Amino acid sequence: MEKNNTLSIFLDQVGRTVIGEILTDESTDTILAVKNPAVVAVAQQQTGQISLQILPLFFKEFLADKSDSTVWYYKKENIVPCKTMLLDFKLNAQYQQLFTNIQQPQQPATPPQTDVVKLFDD
Q: DSSP character for 80?
């Protein structure tokens, strides 16, 4: 499996390219523990160019605590690791941005109550 900083890439049992952080302390001889796995999706645009998108395996919006990570366990016999591959820094940055906790914007304070001024007689 190729590591780029903390990221590894492999093909899962259905042929998807998966990128994620390997948890060596939770992995065994037969199981690979992957924190925050994401699928690398490639699609052709109408212009003929290819677009790349990284989609989380499980959306954190469904978690009770949105800042939690997910860990998935892959059977090593069902994945295909890659030997050597240098990744562009933009792929790493896009993955990191996907799993960075985004602060929710604070709601503006309720405007103070003001007296209504009548401009015209009824």
A: E
d(CA 21, CA 34): 5
Q: What is the dihedral of CA 19, 33, 12, 66, to 10 degrees?
A: -60
Q: Please give the distance of CA 49 from its chain centroid, rounded to a whole number.
A: 23
User: Do the Cβ atoms of 41 and 54 come closer than 8 Å?
Assistant: yes
pTM check: above 0.85: no
Q: What is the pLDDT of residues 48-71, one digit of tens each?
A: 898 888 999 998 888 888 888 899
Which residue is it, tokens 């996907």?
Answer: 98
The fold of the 2-95 domain, in CATH, is SH3 type barrels. (2.30.30)
Q: Give 12: exposed, middle or buried? Use CB within 10 Å, 0-12, 13-18, 19+.
A: middle
Domain locations in the chain as residue ranges: 2-95
